[in-house]
Amino acid sequence: MSALTIKNVTFGDGGLTVMAGPCSIENREQLLEIAGAVKDCGVKVLRGGAFKPRTSPYSFQGLGEEGLQYMKEAGSLTGLLTVSEVMDSCDIEMVASYVDILQIGSRNMDNFALLKKVGQFGHPILLKRGYMSTIEEFLLAAEYVLKEGNRKIILCERGIRTFEKLTRNSLDLTSVPIIKKMSDLPIIVDPSHGTGRADMILPMSKAALAAGADGLMIEVHPNPKKALSDGQQTLDYSAFQALMEELRSLNAFLSHQYADLSSARLRAL
Ligand code: PEP
Ligand code: MN
User: Fold this and answer.
1) Radius of gyration for the chain, computed over Cα atoms and rounded to the nearest angstrom
2) Whose alpha carbon is nearest atom 10 of ligand 1?
3) pLDDT tens digit sequence for 28-84
4) For a surface tag, which of 49, 182, 235, 255 has the fewest beta carbons within 10 Å of its beta carbon?
5) What one-character DSSP code corresponds to residue 142?
6) What is the position in ligand 1's atom list of the atom closest to the CA of 105?
7) Residues in Cβ contact with 238 at an 8 Å cutoff, skipping those fewer than 6 apart
8) For residues 245 and 127, what is the distance between their CA atoms, to the nearest angstrom?
9) CATH of the domain at 199
10) What is the pLDDT of residues 134-167, one digit of tens each?
11) Which residues, judged by CB distance below 6 Å to any ligand atom, belong to the binding site of ligand 1?
């Protein structure tokens, strides 16, 4: 396992690094408020979508570059790292001028032209698993970025589409220990998109921690019912704070029980 450090945040050193924020950046005030709230809970990376890959072209598509300006401001005000999705090769340079980490979303995991371009560009990447992809295909997608000389990659398990209808996706936590065996890249888990259900985020986050994940990505909004996207899988502030507290206790328990989960986890939380 080789750890990846981006500015003051390390992934894959045995700690659990949490990314959180709204599904979509909706306006400046909302983003600055959420950034402060998640930072107070121990979050290290602010997430927020500006270019949104929505299933319907009639759904909110995101604020685009204006949203990224708010991300940059939120990052400098709080000291949090920032991550946002890039969907088009033409936008790589522009998105990278605003955020610390470029997200390649599930729908673009096998957009090989985009993978090659972000590989050449060299900015840190959060690569999400394609919702129809095997673990091997996921690792080969990362290989496209690595082959161009960019080793700054964080993998993200976000569930795959199965016949199950009670969840939006089936969160495949076996990918965590399998990827730990097959790759030295850090891997985080996104139980928000992985389940599509706010009530499943706590149990699946705990399971991800126990499975050895290097971090989590969680959608947070002050009023999920009013969120412009993915409200059904989004936590409000108090649920998110409770989640972080439970993760801290589980982490302390696991660190006592298992020598291979180092106390670094406690520091990172
Ligand atoms: C997201 O994280 O904003 C997102 C759209 O997730 P995914 O690509 O995993 O669907
Ligand atoms: Mn979302």
Assistant:
1) 17
2) 106
3) 999 999 999 999 999 999 999 999 999 999 999 999 999 999 999 999 999 999 999
4) 182
5) H
6) 8
7) none
8) 27
9) 3.20.20.70
10) 999 999 999 999 999 999 999 999 999 999 999 9
11) 23, 49, 53, 85, 105-107, 128, 158, 193
Q: How many CB atoms lie within 10 A of CB 199?
A: 11
**Segments forming the whole domain that contains residue 122:** 4-268
Q: In ligand 1, which atom is closest to the CA atom of 128?
A: 9
Nearest protein CA to atom 4 of ligand 1, as residue: 105
Number of domains in the chain: 1
What Å distances lie between residue 15 and 9, 78, 165, 259, 268, CA to CA?
A: 10, 21, 33, 13, 5
Give the global pTM. Answer: 0.96
* Nearest atom within ligand 1 for CA of residue 23: 3
Count how many residues are written for the chain: 269
- Between CA 140 and CA 50 the distance in angstroms is 27
How is residue 1 annotated by DSSP?
-
Residue 195 burial (10 A CB sphere; 0-12, 13-18, 19+): buried
